[in-house]
Amino acid sequence: MFGLPNWRSLQTRIAAGMLVVVLGILWVAEYSLSQSLRRDMEAAISAQQYSTVSLIAKEIDRSIVERLSIAESLAESLTSGVLAFPAATQRLIEERKIPGRIFNWGIIVTDSTGTAIASVPTDLHRTGTNYKEYDFIAKALSTGDVQLPDPVISPNSGLPVFTMVVPIIDDNQHTIGLVIGVTNLAQSNFLDEIGLAKYGNTGDFLVTAPVGRLYVASSDKRRVMKSGPARGVNPVYDRYIDGYEGSGIAKSSRGVVEMSSSRRIPTTGWLMQSVLPVDEAFAPIEAMERHLIVVSLVLTLVATLISWWWLHLQLRPLSEASTLLRNMREGVIPRQALPVVRPDEIGLLTEAFNGLQATIIDEESRAAEHTANRRLRHIVSFVPGMLFQYRLHADGRSDFPFVSEGIREIYGIAPEEAEGNASLLLDTMHADDREAFLASRNESARTLEPWNADYRIVLPDGQSRWLMITAQPERVGAGETFWHGFITDISERKAMAAELEQYRDHLEHLVEIRTADLEAARAEAERLAGVKSEFLANMSHEIRTPLHGMLGLAHIGKRNTDDDSKAHRTFDKILHSGNLLLGIINDILDFSKMEAGMLKIESAPVDLAAVLSESLELMQERADAKKLPLALITADDLPPTCRSDALRLRQILLNLLSNAVKFTEQGSVSLEAKFAGQQLVFRVIDTGIGIPAEQRDSIFHPFEQGDSSTTRRFGGTGLGLAITARLVELMGGSISVDSTPGQGSCFEVRLPYVAVSPSVATLSHDDSGQQHQTLTEIHQ
Ligand code: ADP
């Protein structure tokens, strides 16, 4: 609160202003007070001073009159008879015993020539001295009047003396002598009352003889018998000399400003004066002024502090408001109304500011809304259809706070028109759709579920359009619903849907006809497939029977002829070709069976080791012929037995081994068997020609071979792998191939492992001697 003053602060300026005003008032009051005091005091002191000098003047006058009367009484007692005898005169004046305090320098009696004939005290030896040289003596003698001349320095004694000269008049009214009362002003005399008393501490009393401007007596002994200031030096003094009785202030010849008063002493015409330096006269005022200054300073300080504190209290709402406003501006607190602390001017200002702020916020939000609307309008003008905000009031009125430019295209009116009058859109609605449309709107308002409706409008030119409204409702305030959504022209879609409907009806009819045709065709195909399979089975049986006969006879013929004979070689060729033919027929038969779904997979206990070694044995001869080592690698964890179809398992392995041997010229062929993840894993690995990547999938298709040259080089039908893959599939397993052309191939077969229950005692590795025989023969 009492920090360093900030000169821009209102508080500081008001406090400073108040301070200046208070100081001004104080100083003016003090000045006028001291001036009036000075005037009053001057008047009081002047009156007092004047009354004092009047009193003293009166006293001096009385003393002079007293002395004069003594001298006169003495003069009266001196007759011409007495004067004729100086001794008698001397005796007389001595007898009178006039006290020394009356005439401290004695009394002189002269004759008519002004020569002293008697005098007291006698030790001054003044008898015989002629005083006629003094003007006032001569004047007294000539006029017979009492003379009270100004004091003079006695040429005899060199002392300042004041004389009273009283003529001695005889009966003839002639001046026969003089009585001279002498007062030595350098000694204690009746004027000493003045000499002893000071006026105040530094003031003086003065008795001035105006004619010679001479100081007759003074409390400042240095001035006695000195001349006062020459005319023109001190105007007040000059006025006194000219006869003014009263008081005045002037700068003395000594340079001191003095207050003075003057009163004439009637008997002598002297002036009784007193002077007092103004400094002393006004010392109490100056003391009081000093005191007032101190009090004023203290009061000013107190007033400053109090006004500072009071202003701080009064202006606090302003500084608090400015702090709040700064925080609002910096985003520390949200924008809000300022608190109105008191209903004073600051309160009124705050209220007015709050009102202004509310208006600004309102205008800002409206401007922001306007800008956002403009931007939105611009953006949504690129969106097909018409976007809108629709409001349904509690009283049933409705309006469009926002409508996009798309309305021009759909309704042919401007967005502003629709925003101004919502019923414009309703008016265009097809009469048949209006009820359903409003019902869907009211339903959406009630449930706050999305508002979806298709409806028609009829434009002024009579053109009809299908529109679709999709909007999301939200409740705003009491009973007011607000939708945000869009309206699109679905006329085209509706037309297409209608067309489609037409097509659909037509199509259904067509499909019915086609389905019936297809059903007939399928039944025919199935029948034909059955016929084909039956035919193939019959045919293969029919072919195989004579072929077996032929092969049996050729076998016998071969055995009964010499090895080198032509017949032997012919039988051998017949056997070879016959076996090939038999293999092909068997393959076709198997494939046909599979195609017809007639091939059944057995599930019986199988001795795995036996099946593996048998498969290898059957290939041994062909491998030997190509000098290819055949290897069987069985893992230790391979189960000895499992439930499977031994015939089909062997068929799979033989097919793979037969291919491996067939497509390998050098290196080796191996058969690996292991148990992994509840599966039996068989791998046939060779170092043959390999299979290009692009052929790896197709080789499992029937009648597919690596390339056309394969048939020429290696023979075969392209059925082996197709049959193998189907068999593996039928047995619930999977087959895959990994191969690098020129380096070899690896066929992997994975079959589910089914354990043999312990109760089964006997194992079978072949349930068809016939089949076994056939396969053996195929691959020889
Ligand atoms: P094919 O009777 O012609 O042997 P397969 O179905 O058994 O018919 O084989 C199809 C083709 O797959 C073969 O023509 C051959 O190109 C390729 N093939 C199969 N096994 C191997 C293999 N071990 N090495 C290289 N090519 C192979």
UniProtKB/TrEMBL annotation:
<dbReference type="Pfam" id="PF00512">
    <property type="entry name" value="HisKA"/>
</dbReference>
<dbReference type="InterPro" id="IPR013655">
    <property type="entry name" value="PAS_fold_3"/>
</dbReference>
<feature type="transmembrane region" description="Helical">
    <location>
        <begin position="292"/>
        <end position="311"/>
    </location>
</feature>
<keyword id="KW-0902">Two-component regulatory system</keyword>
<dbReference type="InterPro" id="IPR000014">
    <property type="entry name" value="PAS"/>
</dbReference>
<keyword id="KW-0547">Nucleotide-binding</keyword>
<dbReference type="InterPro" id="IPR004358">
    <property type="entry name" value="Sig_transdc_His_kin-like_C"/>
</dbReference>
<keyword id="KW-0812">Transmembrane</keyword>
<dbReference type="Pfam" id="PF08447">
    <property type="entry name" value="PAS_3"/>
</dbReference>
<feature type="domain" description="PAC">
    <location>
        <begin position="451"/>
        <end position="502"/>
    </location>
</feature>
<protein>
    <recommendedName>
        <fullName>histidine kinase</fullName>
        <ecNumber>2.7.13.3</ecNumber>
    </recommendedName>
</protein>
<dbReference type="InterPro" id="IPR003661">
    <property type="entry name" value="HisK_dim/P_dom"/>
</dbReference>
<dbReference type="InterPro" id="IPR036097">
    <property type="entry name" value="HisK_dim/P_sf"/>
</dbReference>
<dbReference type="InterPro" id="IPR003660">
    <property type="entry name" value="HAMP_dom"/>
</dbReference>
<dbReference type="InterPro" id="IPR035965">
    <property type="entry name" value="PAS-like_dom_sf"/>
</dbReference>
<dbReference type="InterPro" id="IPR029151">
    <property type="entry name" value="Sensor-like_sf"/>
</dbReference>
<feature type="domain" description="Histidine kinase">
    <location>
        <begin position="538"/>
        <end position="755"/>
    </location>
</feature>
<keyword id="KW-0418">Kinase</keyword>
<keyword id="KW-0597">Phosphoprotein</keyword>
<dbReference type="InterPro" id="IPR036890">
    <property type="entry name" value="HATPase_C_sf"/>
</dbReference>
<feature type="transmembrane region" description="Helical">
    <location>
        <begin position="12"/>
        <end position="29"/>
    </location>
</feature>
<dbReference type="Pfam" id="PF02518">
    <property type="entry name" value="HATPase_c"/>
</dbReference>
<feature type="domain" description="PAS">
    <location>
        <begin position="372"/>
        <end position="448"/>
    </location>
</feature>
<keyword id="KW-1133">Transmembrane helix</keyword>
<feature type="domain" description="HAMP">
    <location>
        <begin position="312"/>
        <end position="365"/>
    </location>
</feature>
<keyword id="KW-1003">Cell membrane</keyword>
<dbReference type="InterPro" id="IPR005467">
    <property type="entry name" value="His_kinase_dom"/>
</dbReference>
<keyword id="KW-0067">ATP-binding</keyword>
<dbReference type="InterPro" id="IPR001610">
    <property type="entry name" value="PAC"/>
</dbReference>
<dbReference type="InterPro" id="IPR003594">
    <property type="entry name" value="HATPase_dom"/>
</dbReference>
<dbReference type="InterPro" id="IPR000700">
    <property type="entry name" value="PAS-assoc_C"/>
</dbReference>
<dbReference type="Pfam" id="PF00672">
    <property type="entry name" value="HAMP"/>
</dbReference>
<keyword id="KW-0808">Transferase</keyword>
<keyword id="KW-0472">Membrane</keyword>
<dbReference type="GO" id="GO:0005524">
    <property type="term" value="F:ATP binding"/>
</dbReference>
